[in-house]
Amino acid sequence: MICTNPFYTLEIGGASLFSCRPSGKNTAVPFDWPIFEIDGEKTEIAPETFGLTDRRFLNDKIEQLTFSGEARGCTLKLELLICAFTPFFRFRYFLSSNSDLRLTKSGGDSVSYFSYPDEGAVRRTEVRLSEYDQLVHSYRLREVPAFEHEDALMGPILAEERRDFSLLVAYEHGSTYPDKYLCYEKKDGKIALCAVKGNYLHGQSLRDDPFESIWFQAGAVDGDTDALARAYREFQLEYCSLNAASRKPYIFYNTWAYQERNRFYNKQAYLSSMNEERITKEIGIAHKMGVDVFVIDTGWFSKTGDWETNGSRFPSGMKHIADLLKERGMILGLWFAPPAAACTSEILKKHKGNIRSANGKTSTPGPVWETEDSYDMCLVSDYWDDFADRLIELAGKTGVRYFKWDAVSMFGCDAPGHRHGGEDSSQWERADNYSFNLVRYLSKIADKVCAAVPDAIVDFDVTEHGRCVGLAFLSSGKYFAVNNGPYYPNYDITVPPDQWINVFVNPGPARGWVCRKTLCYDKWIPSVLFMTHYLPDDPEASQLINLASLVLGQNGIWGDLPNVSDNGVALFRAVLNEYKRVRGDVTAADPVVYGCPGDSFEVYEKINRKTRRGLISVFTNAGGKYVYRVKSAVDGKPVVFGGASISEKDGFTYLTVQAKGPSAAILFFGGKA
Ligand SMILES: [Zn+2]
């Protein structure tokens, strides 16, 4: 079958799985059929009978094509997601059999998901998404010259700049570098994406337990690697996920900052401010500031697992809070620890067999932020489905639309009898299969919730090491990227007893240096998918730095709102009002970045190339005069906050900042009608 859109011609089936020819080019890139090890033999599944069996639109843009065919006693099904507006497409496999054929592992996982010819004269870049940087205590993106330092590349994105076009392949999984579950390798004149560990079980019956792969992505653009990154960024924003609300540039507020301050500054309990009176007060201020999504962090519930509202903290109920928010144009968000189930919860009674267990010992229950002791449940078990149903039910009962997921490590269960291996598999294999599958189950939960509640957003906290960071979850939701950044031990500093263990919790420029590091993703993946929270505290100089940072797309406010001055609230309102006029453009804009966080001078141009609207944020750390030539074409005179001015010379726009020291300015272009 041949499938075309403005960007490519895709020939599916035949000598190769598919062959992709970018529009206007003579060269096609053939992708080989997958190779599995079945009953000890490497088996290329190349069905002669391969053909289209189903075709349907999943939304107004994304179409799903299903192909199926028989080969060597197996049925290979291919699901392909295409869209007329992007050069990128997604695909995955299902492998099953009517006879008792089994996937095997003679020497570890043995699957080649796809491969394509290794053209010699190309520039390849590995785009690594899960490098954990201890200096800023958060994940960051790294571009690495591919195959120059390692033979087995983690990716998950591999970019290839050829003479007349650039090719991208990627896989949707997530783990922290260098913990590889799949990798790209060069072999037999090909570049192949291979399974490394945990992808399936040795002896997995294709009749009783058919194999379902993760999703893969591919596409090509007319241009260099930078053009590829721009197109890929747009794909991630508009045409990859069916869960569109996760891409919206709302302004988010989260209550946790004060809960933590109250604990360490005032020696109160984390949950002592978790009550209707305080939350109602914060809602009033959040509304004045221009917040869109009000997230109540931990402590709002009576028991984990059941996730009922705590009636003594919220006597009028959570629906009342959601209604208060709705009247003020805001959306309710709530905190969850997906694996936690309280010892006396109803859900635990049903799922006693699905408690997380390692080395034959079930997890020991412990308190969850001053609430009842809870067990850690295995999410790669039937528990996932009931947890998803619980969230859907809550959305109906309370109106919650934003689900913040915290405390999900990707390790720790090797129990037989869940969905990651039985008694036939070794303990190690069950542990690897659990870690491999965890992110797939997180996505299943998020997808089920979003299918039932289309405006729901699921956000996954990946502020700590060992989270499943990669492309899988981004197809279902978004990341919560930075909490407070580094702790004292990150810098080998001993923490005195009862001291707040985080370093960057004060107003001023320093927190921004840490938080803005995450903007490194914005070249490939929109910053709106890596939420990071900034402090609203006075003085005004700090507020401007934090505002100039958050409007770049991380969009989070980490608050102690009643402590913000009236002038501060008004400044947030004024800046966020301007931001909201252009936020669609800012979100769509691929960034032009000059300097790094902490440098004397740092500039971010977030101007939509098509509309010339958007904003520029400028930061200084040292006093002096800076004159900067703006690279983007901008629309008219800007609305400026902070000390910066604009001038025109020889057809260029110049930005001048006369700084006395650390400062920030924001220039909004094209906002006013
Ligand atoms: Zn388990």
Please describe what this structure looks like.
- Strands 7, 8, 9, 10, 13, 14, 15, 16, 20 and 21 form a ten-stranded antiparallel sheet that branches.
- The longest helix is centred in the middle third of the chain and has 26 residues.
- A hairpin with a 2-residue loop joins strand 8 and strand 9.
- The chain has ten helices and 42 strands.
- Among the domains are: 238 residues, Beta-galactosidase, Chain A, domain 5 (Distorted Sandwich), CATH 2.70.98.30; 76 residues, Sandwich (Immunoglobulin-like), CATH 2.60.40.
- The protein is α+β, with helices and mostly antiparallel strands and 673 residues long.
**CATH level-two architecture of one domain:** Distorted Sandwich
User: Which word captures the global form?
Assistant: globular
CATH superfamily of one domain: Golgi alpha-mannosidase II, domain 4
Distance between the termini: 49 Å
Fraction of helical residues = 10-25%
Mean of the pLDDT scores? 96
Number-wise, the strands total 42
| CATH topology grouping of one domain | Beta-galactosidase, Chain A, domain 5
Bound molecules: zinc ion
Residue stretches low in confidence (pLDDT < 50, at least 5 long) are none
